[in-house]
Design goal:
It is a single chain. By secondary structure, the chain is mostly helical. It contains 5 helices and no strands. It has helices spanning 14-23, 26-51, 59-84, 91-119, 122-163. The longest helix has 42 residues, at 122-163. The two termini are 29 Å apart.
Length: 165
C-alpha cells in the first residue's frame, strides 16, 4: 500500500543526486563560513596592526599591508556571495574562488620573490621562487579542476534538459 506511483515520481539520476548532495551539504557551507571568517579576521588583524603602529610605516610596508587587507576582504566577500545565494550548484563559485586563489597566490609569490631577491642570498631568493612556483601550480591545478567540474555539471544539465519531455 505504500508503493508510489512510478509515473508520478520522476527518477533523479544517481549522479545528479550525488552532485546535489555534495553542493548543498552542511560541510560545504561550513567551509565557506570558515573561508569568510579567516579572510575577515586576517584583514581586521592586519588593519589593527597597521592602525596601532606608533610611527609611520615605510611605503613598501603600507603597500604590503594594503594588499593583504584587500586579499582578506576579497575572500570574505566571496564567502558572503556564495552563502547568500540560494542556488544549489556552486560550480561557478568554485571557479571564481579558484581564480581568486590563483591571483592572490601569484601576487604573493611574485612579491615574495622580488623581496627575497632584494634582501636575501641567492639561495634564499631561489627557495622563495620555488615555493611560490609550487603554490602557483597548486592554485592553477585547483582552477583547472574547478573548471572541469563546472563543464561536467553543465553537460549533465544539458543532458537532463534534452531527456525532459
Amino acid at each position: 500500500m505504500s508503493e508510489q506511483n512510478p509515473a508520478a515520481r520522476r527518477d533523479v539520476p544517481e549522479e545528479l543526486e550525488r552532485a546535489l548532495a555534495a553542493e548543498v551539504s552542511l560541510g560545504s557551507r561550513m567551509r565557506h563560513v570558515a573561508v569568510g571568517l579567516a579572510g575577515g579576521c586576517a584583514a581586521a588583524l592586519i588593519a589593527m596592526l597597521w592602525a596601532t603602529e606608533p610611527h609611520p610605516l615605510p611605503a613598501r610596508t603600507q603597500a604590503a599591508f594594503a594588499g593583504l587587507i584587500a586579499i582578506g576582504l576579497a575572500w570574505s566577500a566571496f564567502a558572503v556571495r556564495v552563502l547568500s545565494r540560494r542556488r544549489p550548484l556552486f560550480a561557478r563559485d568554485r571557479v571564481l574562488g579558484a581564480r581568486l586563489a590563483l591571483v592572490a597566490t601569484v601576487v604573493t609569490a611574485v612579491s615574495g620573490t622580488v623581496l627575497a631577491a632584494a634582501r636575501a642570498t641567492t639561495a634564499g631568493a631561489l627557495a622563495t621562487a620555488l615555493a611560490g612556483a609550487a603554490l602557483v601550480a597548486a592554485a592553477g591545478l585547483i582552477l583547472v579542476r574547478a573548471q572541469s567540474r563546472r563543464r561536467e555539471l553543465l553537460r549533465l544539465r544539458d543532458a537532463l534538459r534534452q531527456e525532459a519531455p
